[in-house]
Structures are given as C-alpha cells and as structure tokens.
Amino acid sequence: MSANASIATLFNQIADALEVLGENQFKVMAHRKAARILEDLSDDVAELCKSDPDKLKSIDGLGASSVQKIQEFVATGKIKAHDEVLAKLPPGLIDVLRVPGLGPKTVKLLWDQGGVTDLTTLKSQLASGALEKLPRMGAKTLQNIAENLAFLETAGDRARLGDAMPIAETFVTQLRAIKGVTQAEFAGSLRRGRETIGDIDLLVATEHPAPVMQYFCSHPLVAKVLVSGDTKSSVRLNNGMQVDLRAVPAMNWGAALLYFTGSKDHNVILRERAIERSMRLNEYGLFADDGDETPPQQRGVKPVASKTEQEIYIKLGLEWIAPELRESHGEFDNNLTKHLVCAGDIRRELHCHTTASDGFLSIEQLIETAKSRGFDAIAITDHSRSSAQANGLSVERLREHAANIRAASAKIKGIHVLVGSEVDILADGHLDYPDDVLAELDWVVASPHTALKQTPEAATARLLAAIANPFVHVIGHPTGRILNGRPGLEPNMKLVIAAAAKAGVALEINCNPARLDLRDALVRAAHEGGAMISINTDAHDGEHFDFLRYGILTARRAGLTAAGCVNAWPWKQFETWRLSRGRAKSLKNS
Ligand code: DGT
Ligand code: CA
Ligand code: CA
Ligand code: ZN
User: 168 and 193: one domain?
Assistant: First the structure.
C-alpha cells in the first residue's frame, strides 16, 4: 500500500473509532476529509514530506493536525493518536463495523449495552437472545444483523464472479445513461473473469465527473460511502461488496481501462516494455520519455497513445491481449492473436436437468429453451439413482424418462435431442448404472457428487476408473468443489488429464458460478495436455443457460480455442466423436 492509502486507512479508522466513542462530529468529519484528500492526491505524501513540506501544508482542506499526523507517519510508520483512540475500544470492535448495515451508533449500543466486543461475541449474543432487550432492536433488525453477519462470514473477503457481475452490469448501464458520460465499463479482476472478485472496479469517460460521483455515492444499493472524491469514489454496498469508481477524460480512456483492468503483474511488464522503448506508461497514457521527472500529463505533454487499449499495445509492439489472459502467465511469450472460444461459438448444451430429477423445466420446456438459444442439440442428463437428494432416476424410471424424451423430441423439429444421464461416479469409481443400461443412452456425463473429502489417491483412482468406462463422454464438474464452500476432490490432475486425452473423454467446465469446475488453471493444463473440454451450464432452470458466460470466461482464461471445445465443434465432427464412444447409436430423429 502507498503511504497515501495507508494514512487514509488510519484516518478512517480514527474516524470510525471516534464515532463509536460518541465524540465530536467535527473531529470525525475532519479525519474522513483528510482521508479523502489523501486518496485523491496524485503526489506521494511521503515524497512531499521530504521534498516539499510547504506544499503539503498548503493542500486545501488539510488542517495543521492532519499534516502533523502525516509527518509523524512518514517519520515513524505510526500515528500515536490512532493507537490512543483505538486503545479505548475492545480490539475487535472496529471489525463489527464491517457487518453491512451496522453503523457506529448501533455498534456503540451493542458494545455499551449488549456485551458485544467483536464479531465472535456479536454472533454469540445474537444466538443467546441477549440483544432482544436493547432499544431499537426489534426481531426484524436482529434477523437482518444475523443474516448480514452470516454473509460476511461465508463470503470471506472475495465475492463470486456470478454475484459481482450482475451488480457491475447494473451500474455500468446506469452510468452510461448519465449526461456527459461517453463510455462506462467494469475493469479489474471482474473484466479479467476471475472466479472471485475482491472489489468491483468501474470506469467512466466524462469531462464532467461531479454528477457521476454524486449519482454513484447516493445510489440506493450503497450502504456506506468509504471515499468520495472529485474523480474517484469507493462505496460499500448493502450486500457487503466494495465498488470503486473512477472518472477520466475520454482522451485518457484506453490508458485508464488498461491500467485498472490489471492485473498488476501484467501492468508491470507493460511498463517495462515502455521503458525499453524509451517511453513511460501510466494510467493517463503512453508518453515519450523526455527525462523530466514530473509526470508528463501534469506538464501538458501529448501522449503517444491513450485513447484505446489497442493503440497502446500496438505502440508497445504487441497485439491486443484479451483481458482474461492478462495475468502474466505467458501472454507475452507468443503474442499472436488466437481465437479464444466465445459464447457465440457454443452450438449445444450437453448437461442439464428436468423435473424428472431436480430441475424446474419439463422436457419440452428444456428443448424449446435450447432451441430459442439457437443450439443445434441438447443433451438431457438427469441424475442417476444414487443421487437420492436430487430425486435420481432408478433404471426403470430412466427407461420411462428416455421414452418420454424421444417422444418429445419427435414432436419438436429443428434440434437434435440426446437422451443422456448425469451418472454418479461412486466413491470407488464404479458408475451408478451398469454398462448395459448406459449402452441404451446417447450421451453420458459422469460426475462425482459424494465422498468429496476422500484422499487424493482415492480421488485419482475414482476419476481414472470413470474415464476408463467406454460409455462415458464427459467427466462433469470433475472436482466437485464449491467456491467459498468446499474444496472438493484433489486428484492428480496430470494423470487424469493424460488419461482423458488418451481415451477421448472430455473434461467439463461446469458454468454454474458456484462451481466453475474445472477451474481456470486446470482447464489450461487440460487443454495443453490434449484433453477435450466441454462447457456446460448444468441448467436446472431456463435462466441457468445464462451461466454460459462464466464458463466462457474461465475457458478464455485458460487460452481455450473453439477447436478444443466439443460444444463448439461442427455437428458432424461432434457426432463422429460421440459415436466413437461405447455403443452409442446414431440418432433416430436426426
Ligand atoms: P481484486 O479486486 O482483488 O479481485 O483484484 P483487482 O485486479 O481488481 O485489483 P484492484 O481492485 O486492487 O485494482 C484494480 C486494478 O488496478 C489492478 O488489477 C491493477 C490496477 N492497480 C491498482 N493498484 C495498483 C498499483 O498499486 N500498481 C499497479 N501497477 N496497478 C494497480
Ligand atoms: Ca477489483
Ligand atoms: Ca479496486
Ligand atoms: Zn452434477
């Protein structure tokens, strides 16, 4: 963290603590304001203290006592007033402010009268009912606090991609509608498609940032404004997520989008390339290096490139790099544009459920949904008999279901329908139906659902056994992990990938944002190891088809091409492969 950010954090903590202690509001506000000024300052205060202390003192809005604290921090790495005021509180009480919806006044009440000193005591006091007697603590309020606390605990510090994306898109749409905003995008890890997101980073291009910042900070989803500046604000939402917003002039758009998309490591390499070419790259643009230490944008120097990401990459001797690849994992080594798989390449859905097991759509609804998406085929894969919690099908019910699917398929033209199953891979590697039953199906997804804590050795043997079964087409969600939930199996993926590549069995990217299984790094290993990938939504409802985008982001992060994904193959190629497995037969209705 820079000195500016560190000191701003300390100032904000002082303000929080003063508020909990019920101290003078002017003192509280002075600290919040100083924190904001530091966040917005383009100069490094540590530098200023040494090189230009008068400039530090002349910064508008920064009082003498704030300046003194800044100097103290730069000299000693500490602020005594911060230590003193925090010492007046129990050590964990400031954390309680992180619970969405809990402000300083309520925290003070919980502490004074409810015996709450940290998140642990908050939880126990809620459970014991001890807080019910406090003023303003109705049953509904207490329930909200309990829910928000549970969210804070389970979400950890990082939100799932699938939870952050819809929120970010809502903001982007609304920001684009503001007068004077010419562009708005989300950047950061979200644009790179990481499976979890620390915070949402938003960027707008405008020459008039004030109304944009005002709109953002007073947005109904906002629980707390953490920083509000002229061109940069940070808020915490009701659900606990943090969102950063920056506004830049249109002229700097590409440089800012590049910078705030990251990753930090990718940016470092870009800056090094700039230096090698006697240029300087920052969030305002790519500039010719004229030897002057003062940042070029402050001297009115015209950048060599700044309006688009493309022109900056080109001036650095590179082709544009897709955001999903910007992790400093070899994206510079062989910088030739290759066609990463995209949602438009996906021609068929190969893993989904109906009301026969735990889905919400009928066979007909599922087929019609796939058809409306423009797919050439859909495989209907309900659960097998051991998945009792998911209403898995007995052999008898499976046969009846297969007949129903074939009847529905005969009535609906224009799409191939594969009669399939998502068959459990039992703990010992056996499949949940015998081979002669699997032989009656067009399509088999084999997935682990139970015994997900078995040893890596057992997990490896289990997956290898499933891959060795000649009727299996795809290993579904191969590890069974749940993001922010459970780690899942930890097989020797080298062996699993090699076996899948050799046998011609595909490995799945399950697009459900709670799963994203295989994860990006394992998809990369699988793709590079010659295994085929199948990208499936595992839809249990119509809207789940929209999960596809998350699987696609994961695939692109792994460098997957359309040629590596069986869902993207031309139908004939797909059929040839499908029929090469087991005793699968040609489709009667095709
Ligand atoms: P996250 O939020 O933890 O999921 O990950 P990011 O990558 O979104 O990180 P974040 O939100 O801290 O910053 C967004 C981008 O801004 C980051 O990817 C690169 C850029 N950035 C932020 N701070 C720095 C910095 O100190 N140095 C450099 N080079 N880039 C930075
Ligand atoms: Ca971020
Ligand atoms: Ca951020
Ligand atoms: Zn499953």
Answer: yes
The structure tokens 């090094």 sit at 272
How many Å lie between the centroid of ligand 2 and the Cα of residue 43?
22
pLDDT along the chain (590 residues), means of 10: 79 92 90 85 82 87 91 91 94 85 89 94 94 90 86 75 96 97 98 97 98 96 92 91 97 98 96 97 97 94 98 96 94 82 98 97 98 98 94 97 98 97 98 96 97 95 97 98 89 97 98 97 96 98 97 97 98 97 54
Q: Which phi and psi (to 5°) does residue 57 adopt?
A: -70, -25
Cα–Cα dist 253/250, whole Å: 5
Cα angle for residues 56, 61, 62 (degrees, 5° grid): 40
In this structure, the number of other CB atoms found within 10 A of the CB of residue 218 comes to 11
Residues 212 and 277 in one domain: no
How many alpha carbons lie under 13 Å from residue 355 in its C-beta half-sphere? Answer: 7
Spatial contact of 537 and 548, defined as CB atoms under 8 Å apart = yes
DSSP state, residue 441: -
Spatial contact of 508 and 475, defined as CB atoms under 8 Å apart? yes
Range of the domain at 71: 2-155
Q: HSE, CB side, 13 Å, CA atoms: give it for residue 419.
A: 26
Pocket test for ligand 1, best of 259, 264, 309 (most atoms within 8 A of CB): 264
Name 562's Cβ contacts closer than 8 Å, sequence gap at least 6.
Answer: 339, 341, 345, 568, 569
Nearest CA to ligand 1 atom 1: 198
CATH number, position 136: 1.10.150.110
Residue 584, phi-psi category: left (phi > 0), alpha (psi -120 to 50), beta (remainder): beta
Same-domain status, 237 and 275: no
Q: Do 350 and 443 contact (CB within 8 A), yes or no?
A: yes
| CA separation for the pair 161, 120 (Å, rounded) | 28
How far apart CA 351 and CA 269 sit, in angstroms, is: 40
Tokens 């109906």 locate to: 354
Taking a 5 Å cut-off on Cβ, the residues next to ion ligand 4 are 447
**Contacts for 272 with CB less than 8 Å, ≥ 6 apart:** none
What is the pTM assigned to this prediction? 0.76
Going 562 to 586 to 418 to 393, the CA torsion angle's sign is negative
